């Protein structure tokens, strides 16, 4: 039986080049590793409920991406906020920690980062859990118009239109509350995200990433090729009421991964905020059949 320390979340930093990556971890260090990659506009705090639920069997590591949370990164102009660069930092982070084998949990922005990581290191990635982490055109809702306009024409006017995506009201009412049971939705997550967004230069960093999100769509065929070639075990556990990434995106994994397991929850985009217990159960069942957990 693990001791109480296995359930305790601890907080650390790891230098990767010029970037001081903040991360939280839990579980025994000799247990199978599950790397947790957060989304927009959040940080590793989104895993605060999930980590203790899995810590008895897995070593959980959740970094804050550059430009998010408590990771200290250079200013714009000194560091270019693109998804390729986020991936390179996270790859360097895994190498600095000596992670030779791990599963990866991807959500939202964490998906294109995690899929770049997996495609470049297929021998290291044992399994993938995608929680509203998209890799297919079928997964886009009809709410992407302003972002897609900015991708096509990266003008100052189109950039300003995308600022609405960063407003406190959008974060709280659209990203978090849509499709979520209000009695189960704690204000802690969106309140912290809104505070992060109010920091100097945060909006401009996020607008840079919104523009570069088009690079993820361009990379989808390479992700699909990785899936088809390496057939990683994949669990898609999806909030069915997500206003950004709709359920067909979860089902689409089966085009390239016929054995993918897909579960739709009565939840929104930030499904962990309301369904951490249910998601943990799916993960435990999936990984128990995919990996050998710690004794």
List keywords for this structure.
295 residues, globular, 16% strand, eight-stranded mixed β-sheet, alpha/beta, Rossmann fold
> What count of domains describes the coordinates?
1
Proportion of residues in extended strands: 15-25%
CATH architecture: 3-Layer(aba) Sandwich
Structural class: alpha/beta
The helix content, as a percent range, equals 40-55%
Helix/strand layout:
Elements lengths: L9 E7 L2 E8 L6 E5 L12 H5 L4 E5 L19 H14 L5 E5 L3 H11 L4 E6 L14 H8 L3 H6 L6 H9 L11 H10 L4 H29 L3 E6 L8 H4 L1 H4 L4 E5 L6 H19 L5
Parallel strand pairs: 3-4, 3-5, 5-6, 6-7, 7-8
Antiparallel strand pairs: 1-2, 2-4
Helix pairs in contact: 2-3, 3-8, 4-8, 6-7
Structural commentary:
This protein starts with 9 loop residues before the first strand and ends in a 5-residue tail after the last helix. Helices cover 40% and strands 16% of the residues. It has a single domain (4-142, 216-290), classed as 3-Layer(aba) Sandwich (Rossmann fold). The chain is built from eleven helices and eight strands. The mean pLDDT is 96. A hairpin with a 2-residue loop joins strand 1 (10-16) and strand 2 (19-26). Strands 1-2-4-3-5-6-7-8 form an eight-stranded mixed β-sheet, sandwiched between helices. Helix 4 crosses helix 8 and helix 6 runs antiparallel to helix 7 (188-197). By secondary structure, the protein is α/β, with parallel strands linked by helices. The longest helix has 29 residues, at 202-230. The protein is globular.
